[in-house]
Write a structure and sequence with these properties.
Length: about 325
């Protein structure tokens, strides 16, 4: 059993992390640092909130500290937790710079601890489907991969910290961290990256849009983009290969399900509706096929299964820290 202390009980702490710790038989939440006593009592009856981070870090019964706090605090809290002898799961972006993450990586290794980054969208339903499609070579040699995070959110975020300029602020660090991580998982580090992040919304004070172009061998081009001023849905993924194409609308439903009160063990959890299935148009042995591809179930529990195996069995991490270092280096290249 791995005893967990959660720092922060907002969207990420309460809805994206805590339900999986509750559902997984190998974790037990012992402390939650939050001022939201009523919400904590709803989810963890009998567990009193911890007022100070220092108290959670000083608790000798805590094995793993799960950081679900604003972006600018990630590096400092992760460092403090590692110094206190705890394994760490830190929400993305792990740090504001690649240098900070390299420092944390080396500190964890020196103390024989594990540092994980919450790149849960490697286990999104749509991304798992895209990955399976590419592994099956149903498109032939891939020449174009496009992934977008478009939303209609013209007003500033109600969470002030998400609209405050500073290290790790903006959509490139927020949603971009997921898109870049998925590409690194599929194709590795690119030969070249170009692009920009800029401000689109009238009242925004952060870079709230971005457009990246990544170059890979064999004529593969990758395009990643985000805008908060897209009212009409655009494809989530568009892939073109030498034999065919795949287009997918809609997005993984796990976050919405968790916020609605579903648990990871509930029937239908992680299953997108059939109307969001992607369309595959390809050919094989002279036969042309065009039809829907059923979307695989999303499985964010994979983050927690892997963490448990790494800590207790010495398994390899599903998200290598070197991938996250590369992610931050790419972001810094574009932001420079």
């Amino acid at each position: 059993m791995i005893n967990v202390g959660i720092l922060g009980f907002g969207l990420s702490g309460r809805y994206l992390q805590a339900p999986f710790y509750r559902a997984h038989p190998g974790f037990a939440v012992k402390r939650v640092v939050t001022s939201r006593a009523d919400e904590l009592a709803e989810d963890f009856p009998g567990l009193e909130p911890t007022a100070r981070t220092e108290d959670a870090l000083a608790d000798p019964t805590i094995d793993l500290v799960s950081i679900a706090t604003p972006n600018a605090t990630h590096y400092g809290l992760a460092r403090a937790a590692l110094e206190a002898g705890k394994h760490v799961l830190v929400d993305k972006p792990a740090c504001a710079t690649a240098a900070q993450l390299r420092e944390l990586r080396d500190l964890a290794a020196h103390k024989n601890l594990h540092l994980f980054v919450f790149q849960n969208r490697r286990w999104d339903s749509d991304f798992l489907t895209v990955r399976q499609l590419l592994q099956g070579d149903q498109l032939g040699g891939l020449v174009n991969y496009e992934a977008r995070y478009d939303r209609w959110k013209p007003a500033p975020n109600a969470k002030a910290w998400k609209e405050t300029p500073g290290p790790g602020a903006g959509m490139l660090y927020d949603l971009g961290a997921h898109l870049i991580d998925q590409v690194l998982a599929l194709f590795g580090r690119p030969e070249d990256v170009r692009g920009e992040a800029w401000t689109q919304r009238n009242d925004s004070t952060i870079p709230d849009a971005f457009d990246l172009q990544l170059t890979y061998p064999k004529q593969l081009r990758v395009s990643l983009s985000c805008s908060l001023l897209v009212r009409e849905p655009t494809p989530r993924y568009t892939l073109h290969g030498r034999r065919g194409s795949f287009v997918k609308y809609g997005i993984d439903v796990q976050e919405d399900q968790l916020r609605a009160g579903m648990t990871p063990h509930d029937p239908g959890f992680g299953h997108e509706p059939e109307e969001q299935d992607g369309t595959l148009h390809t050919e094989h042995d002279g036969l042309t096929y065009r039809g829907a591809v059923r979307t695989l179930p999303g499985h964010w529990m994979g983050v927690f299964d892997n963490m448990h195996r790494v800590i207790t069995e010495g398994a390899d991490p599903a998200v290598p820290l070197d991938d996250i270092v590369a992610q931050l280096e790419l972001i810094e290249t574009v932001s420079a």
